Amino acid sequence: MKLILRGHHLLCLKGFQGYGYDEKFTKNMTDINSKRKSPETVIKLTNSPDNICKACPNLRNNICENEAQNDRIVLMDNQVLEKLDSSKEYNSVELFKRIEHIFNTKESVCEICFNCIWHEKCLFYQKIGKRI
């Protein structure tokens, strides 16, 4: 199986616990979160709408909500992608281990995650916050 994922969604999936914008989005996110844990899954990285975005009620005309919001989302993606080689495909299990190694302090994710509407519910962000 192959997944296409935005850079910042690598962090979102690490902290996902079943919350979402609506039922369709939550089901899709749950399915992708399950698939990304399989050693047979391959991930291609992007900074544009991905397999998660396709079920998002905020995706309009292939951008997130509006131009300003979309620019902020792309910036978050790029901050994650600058730590990886987005030209290659990754084994999902190995990629998520690498993500956990790269983004392992609150400082390493603060700029990316702090303004996210989900950061207070995100298990990944909470776990990192406890390491301080």
Which structural category do the helix and sheet elements fall into? alpha+beta
Shape: globular
**Total beta-strand segments:** 5
Q: Strand sequence of the main sheet, in spatial order?
A: 1-2-5
Helical segment count: 6
Q: What are the segments in which pLDDT stays under 50 over at least 5 consecutive residues?
A: none
**Total domain modules:** 1
Radius of gyration: 14 Å
Quote the beta fraction: 5-15%
Roughly what percent helix? 40-55%
Overall mean pLDDT: 89
Protein name: DUF1284 domain-containing protein
Organism: Methanobrevibacter gottschalkii
InterPro entries: DUF1284
Q: Would you give an account of this structure?
A:
With 132 residues, the chain is of the alpha+beta class. The chain has one domain (2-127). It is built from six helices and five strands, in the order βααβββαβααα. Strands 1-2-5 form a three-stranded mixed sheet. A two-stranded antiparallel ribbon has the order 3-4. Strand 3 (59-60) and strand 4 (63-64) form a beta hairpin. Helix 1 (7-15) packs across helix 3 and helix 1 (7-15) crosses helix 6. It comes from Methanobrevibacter gottschalkii. This is DUF1284 domain-containing protein.
